[in-house]
């Protein structure tokens, strides 16, 4: 049975921390799911860590749906959240409904996430009203980096802190089942977490959120071009993969691979006949 939004909300009530990770493909989603992660985000961060874009802004709905399908096939138990890409939920509520429905119907995710506070509240209300669970996302919202002036911590000044608390409360009131708090001071995320009945999921928001989310490529040491301060590396996969690939290259070049152990055999009499017939046909 898949984890439900009720169970996720229940985890906050029981003071059980909620681990969440991103995944973008079948194999990783399967491993993450089997390791017991209850919430998986098909994040638009895939634009940077999987597709090599400079930001999340170029990511399209079709790319998100393609990756969501793979994640849903891999993870059988976790609740899967599809991240709505830039400008797929701002133009109109009906466009947002259409795109969110694509995540649920085509992508197979159980919920969607969208960035922004008060500005998206009406959209959140309509999506939830139509039966689509919504996760909010406030603080550093990467789809607005041009407006925000880069990847910076948010909510350090009084007006911004008040606005973030207000945005969180508005999103809760609009029906969001959880809210990501990205790159805000720990004391502010603690306050927001205390004020809300729904879970807060932090990334660079300190230890007091109800859950934590990380980009999988950051914690595995797979994406090395930029590692945020808030990411902890639990493995160095880029180094391991490079070492493994170098060994493969040198063994192929030197003839050490493949050995008989990795090869298939056939009866000698058969190959002798094939060889002799090939010789005769050349003589004709
Ligand atoms: O796209 C993403 O991976 C995200 C997380 C950083 C929360 O939005």
Quick recap:
The protein is an alpha/beta fold and 284 residues long. The chain is built from twelve helices and eight strands.
Tell me the layout of helices and strands:
Elements: H1 5-13, E1 18-22, H2 26-34, E2 39-42, H3 46-49, H4 61-74, E3 79-83, H5 93-107, E4 111-115, H6 121-129, E5 134-139, H7 145-148, H8 158-174, E6 178-182, H9 186-195, E7 200-203, E8 211-214, H10 216-219, H11 237-254, H12 268-283
Parallel strand pairs: 1-2, 1-8, 2-3, 3-4, 4-5, 5-6, 6-7, 7-8
3-methyl-2-oxobutanoic acid (KIV) is lined by residues 22, 41, 43-45, 83, 180, 182, 203, 213, 215.
Task: List the main descriptive attributes of the protein structure presented here.
8 strands; elongated; eight-stranded parallel beta barrel; alpha/beta; 45% helix; 12 helices; binds 3-methyl-2-oxobutanoic acid; 13% strand; 284 residues
Walk me through the structure.
By secondary structure, the protein is α/β, with parallel strands linked by helices. Helix content is 45%, strand content 13%. The protein is built from 12 helices and 8 strands. Strands 1-2-3-4-5-6-7-8 form an 8-stranded parallel barrel, surrounded by 7 helices. Strand 1, helix 2 and strand 2 form a beta-alpha-beta unit. It is elongated and about 90 Å long. The chain starts with a helix and ends with a helix. The mean pLDDT is 96. 3-methyl-2-oxobutanoic acid (KIV) binds next to strand 6.
């Amino acid at each position: 049975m898949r984890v439900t939004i009720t169970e996720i909300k229940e985890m906050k009530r029981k003071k059980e921390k909620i681990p969440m990770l991103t995944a973008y493909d079948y194999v990783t989603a399967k491993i993450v799911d089997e390791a017991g992660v209850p919430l998986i985000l098909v994040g638009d961060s895939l634009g940077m860590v999987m597709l090599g874009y400079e930001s999340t802004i170029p990511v399209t709905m079709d790319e998100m749906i393609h990756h969501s399908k793979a994640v849903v096939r891999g993870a059988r138990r976790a609740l899967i959240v599809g991240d709505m890409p830039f400008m797929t939920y701002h133009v109109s509520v009906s466009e947002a409904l259409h795109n969110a429905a694509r995540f649920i119907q085509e992508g197979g995710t159980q919920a969607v996430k969208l960035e922004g506070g008060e500005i998206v509240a009406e959209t959140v209300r309509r999506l939830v009203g139509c039966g689509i669970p919504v996760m909010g996302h406030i603080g550093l919202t990467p789809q607005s980096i041009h407006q925000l002036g880069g990847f910076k911590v948010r909510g350090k000044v009084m007006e911004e802190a008040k606005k973030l608390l207000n945005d969180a409360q508005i999103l809760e009131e609009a029906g969001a089942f959880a809210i990501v708090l990205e790159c805000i001071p720990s004391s502010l995320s603690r306050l927001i977490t205390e004020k809300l009945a729904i879970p807060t999921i932090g990334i660079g928001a300190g230890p007091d959120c109800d859950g934590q989310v990380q980009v999988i490529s950051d914690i595995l040491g797979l994406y090395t071009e930029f590692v945020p301060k808030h990411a902890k590396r639990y493995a160095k996969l880029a180094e391991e993969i490079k070492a493994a690939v170098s060994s493969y290259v040198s063994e192929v070049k030197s003839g050490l691979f493949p050995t008989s152990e990795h090869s298939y055999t056939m009866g000698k009499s058969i190959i002798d006949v094939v060889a002799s017939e090939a010789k005769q046909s050349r003589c004709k």
